[in-house]
Amino acid sequence: MAKFIFRVFLAVILSYLSNSVNGKANFKDVEEKLKQLNKPAVKIIQSEDGDIIDCVEIYKQPAFDHPALRNHVIQMKPSFDLKEVKINSKNESSKVAVFQTWQKSGSCPEGTVSIRRIRREDLLRANSVQQFGRKPQEVVLKSNTTIEHKDGQSPFFNNTKFTMPTIVNRSAATLVTVGYNYIGAKADINVWTPNVESEDEFTTAQIWLKAGPGDNFESLESGWMVNPQLYGDKKTRFFAHWTKDSYKTTGCFDLHCSGFVQTSSKVAFGGALEPVSTEFGQQYYINVGIFM
Matching PANTHER family, A to Z (predicted)? Predict the structure, then answer.
């Protein structure tokens, strides 16, 4: 099993930015948003798949537009890590690692972060400039509702009833815990390119950490995604998503809003992954870790 290890250290800062304004984008809105998201690069990498990767000085990335991050010192590594048990295989040396397509065209220097450039057409595909990079409202509504188990009962912990998040068109393994503190999670995720029929649909395979009940929760997500509306194609891409208030006013994919600090120059959120697994063929995996 080929592996590509992603270590995602999410620094989520409370964001007061409101993204609730609706309406189609005009030219001025689009240009202002592009200027806000695409920071000056010390190096530009043109990927063979059409993506442009900007190598941006780490303290000039979009997150530092937020007033809460003034004079903020980046913690480059998490305070805790999860021990990894490596199982050696006789064929380990012959396995091909998963990588991001843009990496074949160059690398970003130390002291920078690799950021996939947002283009005008990316913004125009969104319902509005303000909604760009956010989850569609129908997905948010489904994530904020709950259902009971098939037997009509919700689980109880310490004599307290808890409701589980609804699972609509989704397969999930869910661990619900009460009274424990966790430093993070890590998983090997098989890399595929499933078919997405509609341009406004998307599919993911991911780790999703969620704290809080019903429509009052915080969450962190990371894995791979096929999302033609967000990225403009049906390629399998590495992503992250966060929210601090159940998607009400905070949160977005990748680096599309303030509140997320990137530390890596080697991995670009939104970058395409290759190779991908095939039925009855070679299987490829990424190792995704989210550390609190």
Answer: ASLB (DUF239)-RELATED, PROTEIN, PUTATIVE (DUF239)-RELATED-RELATED
